[in-house]
Amino acid sequence: MADAKVPAESNRTKLEQAAVLLMSLGEADAAEILKHLGPKEVQKLGTAMSQLSNVQQAEVEAVLSNFLTEVRTLTGLGMGADGYIRNMLVTALGEDKANGLIDRILLGGNTTGLDTLKWMEARSVADIIRNEHPQIQAIVIAYLDADQSAEILSYFKENVRMDIMMRVAALDTVQPSALQELNNILEKQFSGSAGSQTKTMGGVKVAAEIVNNLDSSMANELLESITEVDEDLGTQIQDLMFVFDNLVDVDDKGIQSLLREVSSDILIIALKGADDVLKEKIFNNMSKRAAELLRDDLDAKGPVKLSEVENAQKEILIIARRMADAGEINLGAGGEQML
User: Fold this and answer.
1) What does pTM read for this prediction?
2) pLDDT per residue over 113-138, tens digit each?
3) Interatomic CA distance for residues 331 and 251, integer angstroms
């Protein structure tokens, strides 16, 4: 390993190194790892694997060495199980290999019709539910993760989005018969049962989280439309929304914990669209040297597309919400209500 041409500290990101690691494993071992990851994580890994090129054997060895070094310092991987993104695996590995992995991942699982939607592209889910009753559409949107739901909503007309979101906000529990009806709709494509218990889903908190994941212009249009119909509901959703600039309300200890989970590349892009108060909050919770380097990197970065800034900020917010759910940080009054 000492003769490897690529040093242990390679130029590839952690995500790219993870992709190299997975691509170097056999299908069975890769499947065992992927089954413990959530949809968004598998999606990112799949994209990274599809974009790999010119990976030398020396670099593969360096990545494996780095991985073994890091694992030796850990007591456990701490990964939670969730659904999976079929299309990303197909893109990364091809239809045959992806199907092999998917079969192994799902073997013995209890994936229901609704859970299987997490595998699908947002446009495909939108097409499936487009002609269904608005209440069925609302149940699907409330059930899926907020970022996927937001993307699905982007394929509907503005008035339809408003109707769905108002129904999502009004949801509390869903009767077994409603879930059974939805599973019947998906029966030809997916397998699973609805169960016999009512399920809690939806509500104003879920609506606020979905709106958080829409792009700015679409979110503003949707909130304006909802407020015109129901001013109180619009206000409730706005009050529960937690946006990037709200990170200024997180205490110093929380900011320091968050920064340890965020890559410098993502942070630089996100801060290009942040106000000066939040920037100073970030700088003040870094070492003097790290803060100086970040300032220099920000100055050298130059103009960045608004869409790239928003995507970077959303990625950091996803990490922040995950940490808040785990009790690792406190997002403050608004975030605490939402999470």
Assistant:
1) 0.49
2) 666 677 677 888 888 888 888 888 88
3) 8
